[in-house]
Amino acid sequence: MGSGGSVRYGIVIGSAAAVLVLVAAAGLALRGGSGPGTGTDARPPAIAHPQATPDRGGQPQADRVPQPQAPRPPSFDVLKVGPSGTAVIAGRAEPGDTVTVRDAGRIIGEVTADRRGEWVLIPDRPLDPGDRLLSVEASSRESGTTAKSEETVALSIRPAASEGKGETALAVVLPADGRAAKVLQRPDGTSPASALSMESVEYDAKGRAVLSGAAAPGATVQIYLGNERLATVTADAAGKWSATSPRAMPAGRVELRLDQLAPDGRVAQRMAVPFGRAGEVELAPGQDYTVQRGNSLWQIARRAYGSGMRYVIIYAANPDQIRDPQRIYPGQIFKLPKS
Asked: What's the CA dihedral at 172, 175, 181, 184 to 10 degrees?
């Protein structure tokens, strides 16, 4: 009896232990454990998926589609017209683009920009004497889009002398965004890089003066309004410089002074330019206008008539004042006819 009870008691103890083992195994299985002895019943660990982080605009970065960069608009860098009308025109565009140069709506030539984005055009026919406005556009072969330049070139070619010698063209880049105009060629053939000069004065929408001129390449130029320094600039490798006054120019007659400094800081060249702010006078047909320093017939016509090409109206109305439309002087008084 004792032994039988012991056996039964042992069976009960063994059964209880087995139940505890099964319960523990079940708990591990329910928790997704992978301890020893779980075999193929173990669940694989969950895979964490990265979540897209929204940017400040609220759009997940993972869903954003990269936008293509806007093509660089073409530009004019060089325009050279010889006495016989042969021309060389050069500039920059996107590599591989087809560049088209137009005289108003007429195409004067097409060329392909090289891998550095540089292009050079030599028109098949010489350019005739007269005044014209050149524009440039570039077409992409990959996207098919066309980008137009933000600048134009006012080109005036006068008839060559009987000897067929001497420079006969004036070419000026006219930016559309308020930057300073840039002279590419002068009719007298002189280089603006050899001496200190101020070539143009424009005004932006805030009334600030946008100045450009020439100096020795790499030279430092200090610009003063009276005795107050307005700006300090450095001429580039071609001897060109430009600057914008920090505030609107005052009304009335003022004097600008340019100082070109020597390497040791001394003043190597100095010039004073008296002028009044042209923007103070609202030009309109039917009035008289006193020429100010930095003016050109093209600028006056653009302000008075809305188009620089109409400078011929002023030229024809003032034959006693204007002998050469490319040379006008401060103090001259021009009539601006109504038609």
From this structure: -30
